[in-house]
Design brief:
Radius of gyration: 22 Å
Shape: elongated
Number of strands: 12
Length: 180
């Protein structure tokens, strides 16, 4: 019986901690912009806009590129070859559209990335934005650009802790009565 109660306590703790972070991007909206000649200079590109993250490709420009957002990954595949202009910043900005995505904790290059010369120095991020600087790089048709994103999980609300502690108290009370 004690082992069963311990198992229930561990399961409750795991469940309570899982409530803090269910999804990073899925079901949420990301802003996408192409910026140049500086990080804060948004262009009037057709692709700029807000996209709901879910199944399938969010941005598709036939013959040029497609971008697919998943829960923790951003993936772009180029459909044609070209060279990005050389300015202080020529690239992409991804941002939290509605303030409901957990703060970004890390952005790492995924092994699918195949753009020659692209490295971690070209990625900058803060709590709500990811900047990807492509200045001067040449991409080939079929090249991929992929990033894995992690976030700082939100702190559980006090109600979550209260429910967790009440459950543990109930389990402890039942165990105490049973073993008397």
């Amino acid at each position: 019986m004690k082992k069963m109660l311990m198992s229930l306590g561990v399961a409750a703790a795991i469940s309570a901690s899982g409530l803090a972070h269910a999804n990073l991007f899925n079901g949420k909206e990301l802003n996408f912009a192409i910026n140049y000649p500086a990080m804060d200079s948004t262009t009037s590109e057709v692709l700029n806009g807000t996209y709901l993250v879910g199944p399938g490709t969010e941005i598709n420009v036939p013959g040029v590129a497609f971008i697919d957002f998943s829960d923790t990954n951003l993936l772009g595949i180029y459909g044609s070859s070209f060279t990005f202009a050389s300015h202080p910043f020529v690239g992409y900005v991804f941002s939290d559209a509605n303030g409901d995505i957990d703060s970004f904790a890390s952005v790492a290059i995924n092994p699918l990335t195949s753009v020659a010369g692209f490295d971690a120095s070209r990625i900058t991020f803060d709590d709500d934005h990811i900047w990807v600087n492509m200045t001067g790089l040449t991409v080939q048709a079929g090249d991929a650009l992929s990033f894995d994103v992690s976030a700082v999980a939100a702190v559980p609300e006090p109600e979550t802790y209260a429910m967790f502690l009440a459950g543990l108290g109930l389990i402890g009370g039942v165990a105490r009565r049973r073993f008397r």
